[in-house]
Structures are given as structure tokens and as C-alpha cells.
Amino acid sequence: MSSARDTRSTAVSSQPTPVRATRADRRYSVLPAPDVQQRQRDIENTLGSLRIEGFELDEAARDLLARYVAGEITFEDVGAVLTRHP
After folding, report:
1. Count of domains for the chain
2. SS3 content of the chain, % helix, strand, coil (to 5)
3. 80 lies in a domain?
4. pLDDT tier, 11 (very low <50, low <70, confident <90, very high otherwise)
5. Would you say 67 and 33 are in contact if contact means Cβ atoms under 8 Å apart?
6. Which end of the chain lies in a sparser environment, N or C, as judged by fewer CB atoms within 10 Å?
7. How far apart are the first and last CA of the chain?
8. Residue 6 pLDDT > 60, yes or no?
9. Residue 79: CA atoms inside 13 Å, Cβ hemisphere, count?
10. Do 70 and 43 meet the contact criterion of CB atoms below 8 Å apart?
């Protein structure tokens, strides 16, 4: 049984205010790489839509979304935190 780790990057694109995945997020991700990549694309599309509407998320919200992308928390967890903090 091999103990090789998936070393593919979940790095974000160079779009303005991207969700930043940290090295720890990549190392401890519980999701397969394709799922992480799909979540990243979904979040980037959502952030793009928000920017078009004139909204910008703060760093804490982007960090929370990075944890969602990495599979550390669920989208429901994101919603619960964001609704508690204006």
C-alpha cells in the first residue's frame, strides 16, 4: 500500500481578491482534488458575481471560504458563521 500524497495544487487564479488556499488547507484536505477544484471554481464565480454587484468580502470571509474549498468545513458552516457576523 502506497503512502504517496496527492501533491496537485489547489492554488487560486490571479483574479482580484481570490480565496486563498493555504499550504495547510492542501495538506489536510479531506476532499478529492476534483471536488476541491470544483469548489474553487464555484467560489471564484460567486466572488466575481459579488464584485459585479459592487460587493467585496473581507479577508476573514475569504479565509472562511478557503476552508470550505479545502473541505475543512461545510457550506452550512460558512453560512452559519457569516450570518452571525455582519
Report:
1. 1
2. 55, 0, 45
3. yes
4. very low
5. no
6. N
7. 48
8. no
9. 3
10. no
CATH of the domain at 49: 1.10.8
> Taking a C-beta distance cutoff of 8 angstroms, is the pair 63, 20 a contact?
yes
Give me the amino acid identity at 51: R
Cell numbers for 6, please give them. 496527492
In a domain, 27, yes or no: no
Q: Which three cell numbers stand for residue 32?
A: 478529492
What φ, ψ does residue 23 adopt, rounded to 5°? -55, -40
Provide the pLDDT confidence category of residue 65 given band limits of 50, 70 and 90: very high
Look up the domain containing 56 and give its range: 34-84
Q: Strand locations in 1-86, DSSP E?
A: none
Task: Please report whether residue 18 resides in a domain.
Answer: no
Identify whether 44 is part of a domain: yes
